[in-house]
Every structure is written in C-alpha cells, then in structure tokens.
Design brief:
Helices cover about 50% and strands about 20% of the residues. With about 280 residues, the protein is an alpha/beta fold. It has an eight-stranded mixed barrel, surrounded by five helices. A hairpin with a 5-residue loop joins β1 and β2. α2 (about 15-35) crosses α3 and α6 packs parallel to α7 (about 155-170). The longest helix is centred in the N-terminal third of the chain and has 23 residues, at about 15-35. Bound molecules: ligand C2E and magnesium ion (3 copies).
C-alpha cells in the first residue's frame, strides 16, 4: 500500500521527488560516515530551571551534528532519518555515554536524554542503559529518559516492559512534546511516567486566552495524577509568570538558556559564577 502510494507520488512529482530522495540518501550516507569518524557529532546541554526558585534543576542532552559542508543540521531533520535507517541506536549510545560521563564528572546534577518509542522497544535497550550507568557508577535516579512518540511507534507491550525494567532500577521517565500527535492523555493513562513536558507549540501560543487555558488545564490534570510538569520553549517573561501561576514545576527555553556546549554546561552546573547572564 505504502509502496503503491510512493509510486503514484513519484509519477506526479517526477524529478523533484528523485532529488529529495537522493538528498535523503546522501544525508544518510554522511550521517553514517559521521558516526564512523566520531568527529561531527556532539552533545549540547540545555538547562532546565525550577519555576518557583529559578534554581538550576537539570540538563537536557541534545544531539548536534555539524556537517562538514552543510554546517549544523537540525535534529528534526537527522533524527527521523536516523530512525528510518537504524542509525538512531548509535547516536543514542553516543549521547547517553556523554551524559553519563557528565553525571560522573559533576556530582549532584540530573540529566535527561531523548529516546523514541522505537528505540525503547529495541531488544536489550534497558540492559544497555543500565550497563552504561553502572560503568560510570552513576545512580540511575539521576537519569531521566524523555520518550517521544513517533509514527513508527512499536507494540505497546515491548515499550512497557522496557519502561518498567528501567523504572524499577530508578530511572525516571517523561513524556516529551506532550499534547502533540501521539502524546496525549490516553497515553499517560497506560504508560507509567514521572513527568510530562508540555510541547513548545502550546507555550508559544500562550498569549492567546484559549491556549493559555489549555496549558493551565494540562498542568492541573498532570498535578492531579501526581506528575511533574516541565514547560518547554519558554521565550517570554509573560509565559514564565503565567506558568509560575499555574503551578508548573520546571521551565526550559531560550528565555532562560539556549542549549550549551558541554564545557559551558559543566561550568554552569558546577556553579561557576563567571557564567552569569546565562541564568535568567
Ligand atoms: P525535544 O526533546 O522536544 O527538545 C527540545 C527542542 O526545543 C530542542 O531542539 C531545543 O533546542 C528546542 N528549544 C529549547 N528551547 C526553545 C525555545 O525557547 N524556543 C524554541 N523555538 N525552541 C527551543 P533540538 O535540539 O533541535 O532538537 C529537536 C528534537 O530532536 C528534540 O526535541 C528531540 O525530540 C530530538 N532529539 C534531539 N537530540 C536527540 C537524541 O539524542 N535522541 C533522540 N532520539 N532525539 C533527539
Ligand atoms: Mg526532549
Ligand atoms: Mg519536546
Ligand atoms: Mg521534540
């Protein structure tokens, strides 16, 4: 069925589609090469702050790919490509390794990493994560995994097994991009998580009364379920103060800090005052 649709599309769009497909293939080949050479992939860390005190709460690890000729390629572009080609497992392993090394280097901090439902359902995922934590001698409760739903969502049961294995060991879980496509309230009825992260598209629309009401309702419902709430994509003071009023636990966004290179994030997390100005 999908193949037939692809052929029709191809017939309609002709050479434009050819070009798109070959671009994708070229990008995939470059990503494969980047993973082999270990030079173009990096992990950045975006600080997350307590909404009430403004204290640094945790860091979110975000993959960065600096392509030799294209420059920085957005994760929104290369992560889906990596998922389709299976390279996502290697990328995640690199990010997780970097995050655990950071956890070992800076005692007391917490770090979140991203993983798609597809990754979590892959055999051995839970054991790989626990293995890396053990190797770095890091307490599992200092790691949080942000689950992003994807169109390639696997069987629910595999996902649940992974989550319950890791949660029993102390690893925390969040539902990322909450409120969009696949991450809805029906999802948190069935999957055990510790936190929701409200998608930045809702935060960006908070100047509209209706959207502000939706955000407020999401926070109330999450609180009623005993879940922590992070708002992502906080860009204005107005958003911040409304989120504080609604009882949102944690804030993340350009207003507070952009994702930082590893060394800057370490300096910040270690509490060096020289990095003032980053904290809002
Ligand atoms: P995400 O996990 O929801 O991460 C938040 C994204 O929002 C990041 O984009 C971050 O740079 C961006 N962001 C933070 N604050 C603001 C703000 O105030 N305004 C706006 N407009 N954007 C903000 P980024 O780094 O481009 O990553 C995009 C997505 O790619 C992530 O969304 C995540 O789903 C995925 N991703 C990134 N790294 C990894 C990874 O290592 N593994 C997996 N599986 N996915 C990853
Ligand atoms: Mg995330
Ligand atoms: Mg998100
Ligand atoms: Mg996302």
């Amino acid at each position: 069925h999908a193949k037939a649709a692809g052929r029709n599309t191809h017939a309609i769009f002709g050479s434009h589609m050819d070009e798109l497909l070959s671009n994708r293939r070229a990008l995939e080949a470059d990503l494969r090469l980047a993973l082999q050479t270990h030079s173009q992939l990096e992990t950045f860390y975006q600080p997350v702050y307590a909404a009430d005190t403004g204290a640094l709460s945790s860091l979110e690890a975000l993959a960065r790919w600096k392509h030799p000729t294209l420059g920085y390629v957005s994760p929104d572009q290369f992560i889906p490509l990596a998922e389709e080609s299976g390279l996502i497992h290697e990328i995640s392993a690199l990010v997780l390794e970097d995050a655990c090394r950071m956890l070992a280097e800076v005692p007391g901090i917490h770090i979140a990493v991203n993983a798609s439902a597809l990754e979590l359902a892959s055999p051995g995922y839970a054991l790989r994560v626990l293995g890396i934590l053990a190797r770095w001698q890091v307490q599992p409760n200092r790691l949080e995994i942000e689950l992003t739903e994807s169109a390639m969502a696997p069987e629910k049961s595999e996902l649940e097994t992974t989550i319950s294995t890791l949660r029993s060991a102390g690893v925390r879980f969040a539902i990322d991009d909450f409120g969009t496509g696949y991450s809805t309230f029906s999802r948190i009825q069935r999957i055990e998580v510790d936190r929701i992260k409200i998608d930045k598209s809702f935060i960006g629309e908070m100047h509209q009364g209706a959207s502000r009401a939706v955000v407020s309702a999401m926070i109330s419902m999450a609180k009623a379920k005993g879940l922590l709430v992070t708002a992502e994509g906080v860009e204005t003071d107005e958003q911040r103060s409304a989120l504080q009023d609604f009882g949102c636990d944690h804030l993340q966004g350009f207003l507070l800090s952009k994702p930082l290179p590893r060394s800057t994030a370490i300096t910040l997390a270690a509490g060096d005052q020289k990095v003032s100005g980053i904290r809002a």
